[in-house]
Write a structure and sequence with these properties.
Two copies of one chain form a homodimer. By secondary structure, the first copy, chain A, is an alpha/beta fold. Chain A folds into two domains: 79 residues, Orthogonal Bundle (Arc Repressor Mutant, subunit A); 114 residues, Rossmann fold. Chain A contains eight helices and eight strands. Chain A is globular, with a radius of gyration of 20 Å.
DNA sequence: GTGTGTGAAAGTATTCACAGCC
DNA sequence: GGCTGTGAATACTTTCACACAC
């Protein structure tokens, strides 16, 4: 069976785990390890060996019975599973503290994410270097998206303008949005949205602290 | 049956949804709405009415049959469910761009989270105002935690020192950690850990973009 | 009539346990 | 012997559908 052939039925809970496996494997690779068993990897990431084998089984057979997984090979396969065997074009909209902090994160390029530009509405930061070439004015958002084929818009604007900016980005053809602004945003159907939300995270901690 | 009495068996998937319900209800309250049905709320947050009723049923009976929910009352009950009927003491460790961005977020206090201090290892920022009173040196971390009864440590340090800082905070008695540093951290058993991870979020988007 | 609260059913996800291969 | 890959079993979550209260 060809690897990567069953993507239609991958449980959504599997996807974030794959990224953890990948990260841990890259760490092990950097330490010079060449082989790993599902048991060892499970211990490292804090899960059950069967979980790892099941997760991988949705994509193919990557191990050797009686031996385990060859790390270099498994990393390659996981990258294919996650769509990291190609590169993706991203922009950050909102060049405040948060946007700048994200732009400075070294690890974008390492996994094949090209941060092409930052956008900001405030005249005073236009043209300034915030870690990824000059900051562009928001008026140029649609044109830039269309000209560069942007895959991911990372939104770090103030709450008040976030939904409007997201609508504009999606209308201009951006197929996925990662929203850090403190609102519950929504996008129309074919687009993909993920939210990172400090307030929700704090409330979850509060719940479990209170139990 | 007393509200809030069944917390032992609340599905973990329910907890983040409660925080969304609460946010949406607060929005509606601000708009002057006084009553809402599970159907209306479900439409607003993009879920199923039965889901909302089931989620609430883990905590008690908050609605009126044939009518719906009285918004003021439901907000109060949800706050109790989430442990937001009291206040929590938080600190931010790491006063870089990200830490400062989080500190400036107005919405901490609004939900009962008191941000008591920021910590940083770098001498150059000690004492500077980053939005929450002066930044303190990391040497004072343990003493401050013990003296002020810190409930939540928000970690925005560089990757290299994050695990060590988390270990120190937990050892000093912090029962919960929200980690923004780009590593997969771990904490010893009774402590609670949540991770916010740009790299994982990007990989999840990559996976679905690729499908 | 309307809409909640909740058992029961359907749908997902995780874990077990073992056949099969190294 | 050791470890993978996977059907079967278990556990968990969501959705349905209806008795009951307003």
């Amino acid at each position: 069976m060809p690897a990567n052939s069953k993507k239609h039925s991958v449980p959504s809970a599997t996807v974030p785990r794959l990224s953890q496996y990948l990260r841990k494997l890259q760490e092990m690779q950097a330490r010079g390890t060449t082989t790993v068993s599902s048991r060892q990897l499970a211990e490292e990431v804090g899960t059950n060996p069967a979980q790892i084998r099941k997760d991988l089984s949705y994509f193919g057979e990557f191990g050797i019975r009686g031996v385990g997984y060859e790390i270099d090979h498994l990393i390659d396969e996981l990258k294919k599973c996650l769509g990291l065997d190609r590169s993706w074009n991203a922009i950050i909209i909102g060049s405040g503290k948060l946007g700048t902090a994200l732009a400075r994160y070294r690890g974008f390029e390492k996994q094949g994410f090209n941060l092409l530009a930052m956008f900001d509405a405030s005249k005073s930061v236009i043209g300034k270097n915030r870690g990824v070439g000059p900051v562009l004015p928001t008026d140029q958002l649609e044109q830039f998206i269309r000209e560069h084929g942007i895959d991911i818009a990372i939104v770090t604007t103030p709450a008040g303008v976030a939904q409007n900016i997201i609508d504009r980005a999606v209308a201009a053809g951006v197929p996925s949005v990662l929203n850090f602004a403190p609102i519950r945003a929504h996008v129309d159907k074919p687009a993909i949205l993920r939210q990172v939300d400090l307030s929700t995270e704090l409330m979850i901690l509060s719940f479990y602290l209170n139990s």
